[in-house]
Structures are given as C-alpha cells and as structure tokens.
Amino acid sequence: MDARFTAEQEEIRRTVREVLLKRCGPEEVRAAVRTEEGYDGGLWTTFADQLGLPGLALPEAYGGIGCSTTELALASEELGRALAPSPLLATSVLVAPLLLALGTEGQRADLLPRLAGGRTTAALAVPGPHLAMALGLTGGNRGNRGDRGNRGNRGNRGDWAGGGRAGGVQARRAGGWWRLYGQVEQVLDGHSAELLVVAAHAGGYARSRTLLFTVRVPAEGLTRVRQTALDETRPRARLELRDVAAELLGPDEETGDVLRALADAGDTVAAVLAAEAVGAAGRALERTVAYVRQREQFGRAIGSFQAVKHRLADVYVAVQAARSAAYYAAWATSQGEERVGGLALAQALEALRTAAAEGIQLHGGIGFTWEHEAHLYFKRAAGDDLLFGPVHRLRSYAADSARLFERGEEEEEEVGEVAV
C-alpha cells in the first residue's frame, strides 16, 4: 500500500480549497443556510460545472469522472473545513451508490447523468431516527448473507423501516404503480431535493420486506416541511406521503439485495463523513491555535502557557489519528473491504467534538456566544453524532461484528467443564 496521494488527488484537494476560501467563509455559510434551499446554489453550480464534484465517484459511462472513494473523501475533507452547506452528501454519497447498485439499466441511464452533472439533487428518506442502522453502521443490515455479529438482530430484515405494522412508510401496488403512505422525519436535504429515494415496507406483516422507491418531485400527495436543526449546515425535512406514486428501484423485490446495497453504501458514507469531520476538526484546531497566539493574559499570549499547550497538543494528536483512520477507511472501502468506515467515523466524530469543545473553552467568554464561529463546528459535531452515531454505538457494533467479546466454542466448553 502506497500511502502517498497522487498528483491528481492533491490537485482535487487544492482546487476545492481555493474555491471555498474565496466563496465560503463564515458569513457566507450563515447566509447560505438562511436561503430556501439551505445552501448556495451558485457555489453548487461551480462545484458541478467547473469541478465535477457531484460525479466524482460515478462511472464515466453515466457522466461521472470515475474516481474512487478516496478522491471523494479528499473533496469532502475540504468541504468539512469550511462547513460548506451542500447537497453533495445526500446526492452523491447517499443516493448515487444505491441507484448504481440497484437500479435497472434504464433507471441508471435516466437518473445518474442528472446527478453527476448537478442538474438534479437527491435525498434518501429512511423512516425514524434509523439512518445509521439502515446503512449498517450501528446495526445488522447485510441482507441474506447475514451478519454474524448480530444473528438475532431484527434489523437484518429491515424492521427499522417500520416493521410492516405501524409507523414508517408502507407501500402497496395499485394499477401497475406503487403507492406510498407514511411520514419520514429528519431527511437530509429532503426539502429541496428533486429526487427522493424512500425506504418503505411492502407485503404487510406476513410477507414484510423493505424496498426502495424513487419519487420525482413535485409529486401529488407529497408534503415537505423544512425542520429546525441543531446544525443548520445540514438542513433536514419532514416528508408526508399520502398516496404518492412511486417507482420501485430495481427490477424485482429481492429485499436481500436492498439491505446489502444499503450496507455497502454505508461503508462509503462512513469513510466520506470521517474525512469531512477530520477537515472540520483540523480547521477548528487551526482557528484556536491562531487565537491563543494573539490573546494575552498577564502580559503574555495564553498560547505560551504550558497548560494550554498540553490541551492543544492532545487535540492535535486526536485529529491526526482520526485523519489517518479516515484516509485508511477511504482506501479500504475503494478496495472492497467492509466494516472499516464505522470505526473511522467514530474516531473522527470524537476528534471533532474535542476540537470544537476546546476551541470554545480557549476562546474564553467570546467563545460561549452563539454568534461566534466556534459554535458552527460544535453544532456540526453534535448534529453528526445524532444523525450518524452516536460514537459509542458505532464502536459497539464494530466490536460485535468482529466478535471481540464473544466466547469461542472451545472456551465455552472449558467454562462448562469447570462449572461442572
């Protein structure tokens, strides 16, 4: 394994950073989140037309660039540094891999070029606060191949989508079309996306199975309401579906393929999110270091005090360790390895929360005001922890999947003999 980045990868990082430095400072971020879309449409057009970010990891056959998860993670790291509100995560990281994995050739040819060109944005609607479980990050979701670390976990059947009884979204056939009923909360960029991919239960309780459906917006019977979120740079929406026409994603109703595709997408999502969190943590640390060099107490900069140096040194070590884990996860995911991203994401989210919290503390009184930009990073840390974690569940599931705390058969026999 060569850990060095290629010249092309470094160019992607440099180009994205230059654009963001010019057009995405703290004031621009605050202005963007107040718009109806929740992001800067002009900046998104620049990303799509000049940088090709929406199609960075999509095949060239569908209008993409054909890069790997590593390139997408590097670009996301720069977006994280600036906390840039953007539909890139929802469109290119959450939805595009599902269309690529499950869609028919007609669906791919129709939808993927639009996403790759930035002409259409998309959102993944997973009922309830179960996005991390649906993506296989905090619960078993490996489809028919099973999940040895969670053999008894009902999430293997996709029960996070509503259980086939109440709640979530229900789907039924009607005259050659599928119709969706239900409500979904906390849909990332769901208020502005032109394409929705909705997870729903079909077959009732007896033949309950989780399927994915595409809904083109606007759609009759669909109501979308933007919700108040702790982290305004991650706009979310509530979707209400009342007899909404939808198209099944894929050629058939093989639920195992759906669950497996979600879990595979989860590995990529976690790696990209880890890189994004590392970018935010690194920038929060940089801002704090610059401040403690200027702020003076007792006639000297507070950054010269040993206690402050030790605190920032601990943050630096945490950020660098998280960065290494994120880079490895991006590489490993592009090589087809599984269950790597979750641990990297846990470490990155923890590093971001630490860096943001120390930044607020070391900025003193001004750091505790909501108007200060340090709170943007703290809100991102808390918001991502709620949406894709929490950290302890990411680690717990990774440990269960690796069977770290399970006794082997030989050990159980020995314990049984001793007991007798």
TrEMBL record:
Family, as annotated: Belongs to the acyl-CoA dehydrogenase family.
InterPro entries for the chain: Acyl-CoA_Oxase/DH_mid-dom_sf (IPR046373), AcylCo_DH-like_C (IPR036250), AcylCo_DH/oxidase_C (IPR009075), AcylCoA_DH/ox_N (IPR013786), AcylCoA_DH/ox_N_sf (IPR037069), AcylCoA_DH/oxidase_NM_dom_sf (IPR009100)
Disordered: region residues: 137-167
Keywords, in A-Z order: FAD, Flavoprotein, Oxidoreductase
Protein name stated in the entry: Acyl-CoA dehydrogenase
Acyl-CoA dehydrogenase/oxidase N-terminal domain span: 6-118
Recorded GO MF terms: acyl-CoA dehydrogenase activity; flavin adenine dinucleotide binding
Sequence ranges assigned to domain Acyl-CoA dehydrogenase/oxidase C-terminal in this UniProt record: 272-391
Pfam families per the UniProt record, alphabetical: Acyl-CoA_dh_1, Acyl-CoA_dh_N
Entry cofactors: FAD
Cross-referenced SUPFAM superfamilies: Acyl-CoA dehydrogenase C-terminal domain-like (SSF47203), Acyl-CoA dehydrogenase NM domain-like (SSF56645)
Domain of life of the source: Bacteria
